[in-house]
């Protein structure tokens, strides 16, 4: 027992000194904290046993504390064992003398009091108890009590493993479904998310069963990395938390010596990916072993001699066979003589929907050191890569296996830059590397729509390869894509197409949702950038695949329709034809005309609300439901800010909007505003109430700015401020010949569009049309404005207008 922990007064001071020691950290500090706590608890037990008059007891640590890994704010998981000879009252008194000093120090305690027999019974009834006992470590008292419990726990675990391992696997899957995958979360739970510390503990339990073992390469280092990160998180926050929140990441990164929060996230993701991969391989092996145990006894009774033990190998490709549910190398395969074998095996595995065996990748990786792929790649290698990417969803686990085993960087060195690269835009579901693979998966379903599926799949894989480089990632990515495509063996004209697709992969979606498609300059600019109909066809498919792979907020029937409309117009321009008839999409519908006529007749606003349902998604996900709000109002100052303010007051979130002016009706022009909105919560407001408030807003009797300011103050009291970059307001040059385009990018917020509208009205410009788009928490809005003379603004006036809008949003 150390002098620093010989009593309750000494332990807190010694603990504090240890945690404040900047030179200490990592596994050494966790072990030192565990030893310090061991000594303190041993002294407590000795004193408590004497005061309670109890003998035949032992104190054991279980769980993480049992492994000697005590983080700064970890619970103390303790098991008080007794031989049952003393009465319940005496044991209860002993427990009180032991637990209360722990609670008095404010330490979290997870405790139980049992005899060895009771501990064994509890473990048989509760899987979590059984897993905890596998890490039981003696602290004080009778060591034979602890040894008997530990020995029984391991014996019972190994005996019951065929039954309990599937139960453990189910628990891991349920937790993953609840918590998500650590390697993709912006605010991950280091313990509970898939690939976190719970999964690492589960792998230890599998190894303890003697039934299977996890791949050891990098696993312990990954687990240590997560533990170090959790330690730093505990010290930074002063709380027992496992969630690495955005606001804490910079301080945690600094505590760990990481360059910045992105570096911290990337290292955390890499650790989680290693653990996730090890879990996939391990659980696959467990399943294989359990299946063999359940099937082979039957087979042995039916088949003579060695036939009962023979495992069938089914050919998949040259040098690749299926064996027991995995793609493995054939016995005659020679990867040292066949550098394309790893790609052939990966493509065959993905096409068959099978995992690629770890040992197959490792054999190919070892052989690649002696004979890498020639540059440019032979046609077979390029074809196998395209085949791998075209397999759809089964591509993902095969690709991740190549990556974790270190094979991928040898094939595509540029991949290292985007590997585990975080994306802070909440619209994105994945890290950059996984998003690229997911885009290829989505593109695989669209290959029947294009004349060159190979170019589509390669462009999908590379479209964001420039992220992480200085400047526009599309420009940087195009240069990288050209280099990579040439290395893959594509001809010059094909590398030009791939580079163009990467350069312009955002062109269609941004133009369709933020620009006026009726403006000839819009279609002309896209036609000039794309160049030919073949590239346009590929770009259309890439745009859809990219959006689908981004997240549910990035694609919808509405966005698909806008992009298709733009593509039709550009195709006609490239073919030298008149722009196609879009079925009246640019002409007012019958309902819009009716509303406009009514607005012109009554000289007041007219509204219509309609619930809209998107077409079912291809993946079977539940289709989102939105609301379309049509407003027709005689042209007058303040319509846009008034309408936007009324929607904000009624807690309607604007997902998209379009404003345009209809030809003179009656005594003047009519503005038609088409909104796609959703209620923040509760039911939708009544259209009559919306109209009444809009009338009041237009005549000045409803003070919208004051009402919105009051609501914003109340909202700020209930929520913490979001970490978001400042708004950006720019002039989009060369976008239109008939108007000045002001583009606003900002964090979506209550009354944002109202503030923008007020700034535009205050500047005395005319809003000819507006195109509002919201993706997750980000709003990207484009406003086509003119002066009072109906002409585009002069350069200086446009710049001043952008500054005025920017100032209104700060």
Question: How does this model look, in words?
Answer:
Pfam families: ACT, GlnD_UR_UTase, HD. It comes from Streptomyces natalensis ATCC 27448. Residues 628-711, 741-810 form the ACT domain. It catalyses: [protein-PII]-uridylyl-L-tyrosine + H2O = [protein-PII]-L-tyrosine + UMP + H(+); [protein-PII]-L-tyrosine + UTP = [protein-PII]-uridylyl-L-tyrosine + diphosphate. Its cofactor is Mg(2+). With 810 residues, the chain is of the alpha+beta class. It has 6 domains: 12-160, Beta Polymerase, domain 2; 184-290, Nucleotidyltransferases  domain 2 (Four Helix Bundle (Hemerythrin (Met), subunit A)); 316-400, no CATH class; 412-578, Hypothetical protein af1432 (Orthogonal Bundle); 588-719, ACT domain (Alpha-Beta Plaits), CATH 3.30.70.260; 725-809, ACT domain (Alpha-Beta Plaits, 2-Layer Sandwich). Helix content is 53%, strand content 14%. It has 31 helices and 15 strands. The strands form 3 sheets. An 8-stranded antiparallel beta sheet has the order 8-9-11-10-14-15-13-12. Helix 27 packs antiparallel against helix 30. The longest helix is centred in the middle third of the chain and has 42 residues, at 261-302. 44% of the residues are buried.
Structure at a glance:
With 810 residues, the chain is α+β, with helices and mostly antiparallel strands. It has 31 helices and 15 strands. One of its GO terms (biological process) is regulation of nitrogen utilization.
